[in-house]
Amino acid sequence: MHRPHVLILGAGFAGLGAAEKLKKAAVDVTLIDKNNYHTFQPLLYQVATNLLDVDIVGSPIRDAVLKQDNLAFHQASISRIDLRNRIAVCAEMEPLSYDYLVIALGAKVNFFGVKGASEYAFPLYTLADATRLKKQILTRFEIADKDPSQIDNGALNFVIVGGGPTGVEISGALASFINHDLINDYPDLAVDRSRIILVDGGTELLRMFKDNSQVYTKNKLEEIGVEVMLGQRVNEITSASVIFQTGEQIKTHTLIWAGGLQASPLVENLGVELAAGNRLPVGPDLLLLGHPNVYVAGDIAMITDGKTAESLPQLGSVAIQAGHHVGESIARQEKGKSVKPFKYRDKGTMATIAKGAAVLQMPHGPTLTGEAAWLSWGAVHLALLGGGGNRASALVKYGFTLFSGKRSSRIIVDEDAE
Amino acid sequence: MHRPHVLILGAGFAGLGAAEKLKKAAVDVTLIDKNNYHTFQPLLYQVATNLLDVDIVGSPIRDAVLKQDNLAFHQASISRIDLRNRIAVCAEMEPLSYDYLVIALGAKVNFFGVKGASEYAFPLYTLADATRLKKQILTRFEIADKDPSQIDNGALNFVIVGGGPTGVEISGALASFINHDLINDYPDLAVDRSRIILVDGGTELLRMFKDNSQVYTKNKLEEIGVEVMLGQRVNEITSASVIFQTGEQIKTHTLIWAGGLQASPLVENLGVELAAGNRLPVGPDLLLLGHPNVYVAGDIAMITDGKTAESLPQLGSVAIQAGHHVGESIARQEKGKSVKPFKYRDKGTMATIAKGAAVLQMPHGPTLTGEAAWLSWGAVHLALLGGGGNRASALVKYGFTLFSGKRSSRIIVDEDAE
After folding, report:
1. Which residues contact A8 (CB under 8 A, 6 or more apart)?
2. Which B residues 181-240 touch A at CB under 8 Å?
């Protein structure tokens, strides 16, 4: 008997979520990702600031796969999806055919055409981004240490563009990394001359949070030494500076781009009209319009909540729930049942600023700030990380790191070196 | 008052050893290394086989430096040493002058002119080497998993050249990694068709060990699945094979070179006649001949034990003791005392083969093999790693890893990727 073949492209929160819900379905599942690891994206900023090791934020996909008998994983880069012939093509394997397709390929950073950004900006969307940024930060300190005149050239200036959760979290973590750790590592260097500048084009940080959280966040960041510049838009990035639309200029070699996402470029040749940010528009059932066997979930999808026309944000929590819904829907289809519309359950949005300082936005409940919000943040992330498998020892280490503030080794391994 | 300036080039075992013994001397010390971390080289093979994390085998030099008030560290690559003008030159800083120079720049792999080796062989001397090799091993399994016909092309064949401690240890560790871990990660792959082949041109493994250790090692390796080929010399390495001088050929994409070292190329323009392997010959006091203020220690030095003309091996234990001797000698010179000749105290040489299996060669005592040797090995290495600073949590993790066999995450982060 032919068992239907479910092909899941992408092993992020959405792809893994879909796979998990197909565990007991009478289907064969193939999961494809260009990496052999799943990335816990909400904590990438902690890899970049040396608080977490790569192997805690990235976990082997095969660890998840081993628990699921009807699933095979392959590490491959999809180059083309052919909806008409129902195949996905990659260079390393025979084309993969499917009965059901789950497109969960995620997004990539969106530089919105800013000149110099693709050459010089440091995005923070992948684990490779995070390790590159960490290496960049440490290398700037080594350079300034050897030649302090480089401080005048902006070697210790770090500019973060984008005042959403990613921008806020990396700014806060960087302040802590520099002012608590690197200051001890470089006793002869004027570390107090380093600057962390968080820039946003709007009038407030954390746009989706309530007013009091926005004010708390700005005050807290300034308290720990982050300069917050609002109403500034970037015009150009060079190897040694950022130039704003006002003509104002800041010397920096490290511009961290937390400015937004666009869908994986694979969607461009699908023959489908794309939504804002090149995202794939889906119906309330998360099916690609006109394709009753093609689901889309995660950052690549433009999902509206059904009640309003507003689209759901590109967050891990949306991706996990959408992935689960897709897996359940395919299981229902296989049993001859109808597919239900997707309903997002907003369990709150958080951003952490410093040890003991965070904001937590509940959809209908109170807004938490400060120590209580930070403890909630810690507990939720420990629980979520733990969900990936039997990673007890890593979590013990992470809990220890989180609450003690003791960091990983500050080493720069250049794999291209001799 | 002018305090004499001691310039130490290289923060390996020898350089750090010298620095440590100058802690209380009335000198200013500058330590230079091209990396910002010290590498615990005896355990590199464990990074390559995923048993240890990069941040345990590499430790921040600044952690050691912070404890020493008279020492400054800079990360820089020395391009030239000018003995006549008493300066060391690097691109990133002003030339560094010195009153005393300690050359402890280590070695690099020696391919002995074998064709294709520099392009295709994987050496194992640096932390970057170890991470590259780990990535290569995991990538071969991913490739074979996608296209099992690649096994016929040698994707799962691993050839190790050199039957000294490095070759023996990486062979044993690789057998354990493949047969205990990767076999579970790739349930659909014929992992049992992988081959590990340890090749040496001589008639036995571990030449410096006694006969019974050599026999034990060969038997133990074969027992855990390593093929041992003696009396075979490599003629050429290609991207997909190794060709021996007999014309015999083995398909492989992963040739691990544990075949020997040559001194850092910086010694070539010193105007000094070099010894075998380009090493710098030193007197019994570890001074460069004709230069009463230039010491040489570690893998870059050709040190004879004074009693015979035989040179001491390029081992961590020799480097540490030589480094200590150099530091003590400079401190003595500064006090107007005479310099003593260096005496190497052989505390034994070890190699580990598998969990519960190792060989331990004492200079005048018994030869240990098996479980007892392995436990000694574990204890000694835990103690040595701990010597580098307050690294308690890393060591707890390492001890746990060592005795439980539980491994780090098997993830491949490609920093060059998008």
Report:
1. A15, A18, A19, A29, A30, A31, A32, A102, A104
2. 184-188
